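Fold this: Cysteine desulfurase
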Amino acid sequence: MRPNRPIYLDNHATTPVDPRVLAAMRPWWEENFANPHSVEHTMGRAAEEAVEAARAGIADLIGAEAREIVLTSGATESNNLAIKGAARFAATVESARTRIVTLATEHKCVLESVRDLAMEGFEPVVLPVGPDGLADLEALRAAVDERTLLVTVMAVNNEIGVIQDLAAIGAIAKAAGALFHTDAAQAAGRIPLDVGEIKADLLSLSGHKIYGPKGIGALYVRRRPRVRLVPLFSGGGQERGFRSGTLPAPLVVGLGEAARIAATEGLLDAGRIAGQRDLFLDALEKAVPGVRVNGNREQRVAGNLNITFPGGVDAQALMRAAPEVCVSSGSACSSAEVEPSYVLRALGIPEEEARATLRIGMGRFTSPADAERGAALLAEAWHRLARAER
């Protein structure tokens, strides 16, 4: 280990690009930089073929068909396109279904999309979760009826790492004739996903959460029975008219390679990552008695720990006191906010405790030494701060 190298434990915010992904992308920056829509010449056709091969790899990761994959700039765009696109198409056909059901712990881009649609005449229903972060399936079943257009529930929470019962949620949506969308940005490559098994109509993915590049993502759009969407913006009609704009071939190739690796190595990754997580937690619990893990302990992804420290030590101060350790106090997409995590508040965690909470994200390249050293540095910082407050 290089001396003073930062210890990166924030793999829910973003993952490093796998060297194999970087190698797959490089020729499409340097050797064949052609527009993949310029199919009139050899280089353009080669770029198009690379894009389509990547699309097939992305589809394989989630049990879909390649033609059901719409390439986007990332999961935020995919979520917006899925939710707003489905709602606005329903409005064009004057559907009686106007209810959109989601959870209080969803990603901000989902919650804001649902709330934005209220101004267009749709009915947002934001359901609470249990203290463990999981959906109350009976409450969900009661909220989803013949008025419901869409149920949108994320597969894995980006802060507390809990895994929702997607198959059960999909079945509830289908029983009422509603569409089911899931934000799977934090799930892909970490847990098995099959759009047929979970009855998903729409599913969002992000490249930089699965060791691929930033700036690229995908939206699965079910073909049979066909899901119709109104695009977010106008243009040349690329991506079957769902998402106009020139595709960035190198980024698409990178996402395809990341998806291929995730499909073949994801389970092996999960076992190894769980070991580093347990190593970290064991060391931290011994050094700081009273730390608490938030969210369901069993139904969660391998690399996630959401930890509340005792004694009211502020998480922001703790991070400043341990600058060698790269962790976060919540979602990277909400990091500009000074309020404590809305996800933790939805679990019923008091504000003071929410402010004393860190999110730890182990990943493919986290070593046992990283886990042990990270825990030790955070523990040392906590003890210094705790002593200063006495």
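The chain has two domains: 7-16+266-389, 19-261. The domain at 19-261 is CATH 3.40.640.10 (Aspartate Aminotransferase; domain 2).
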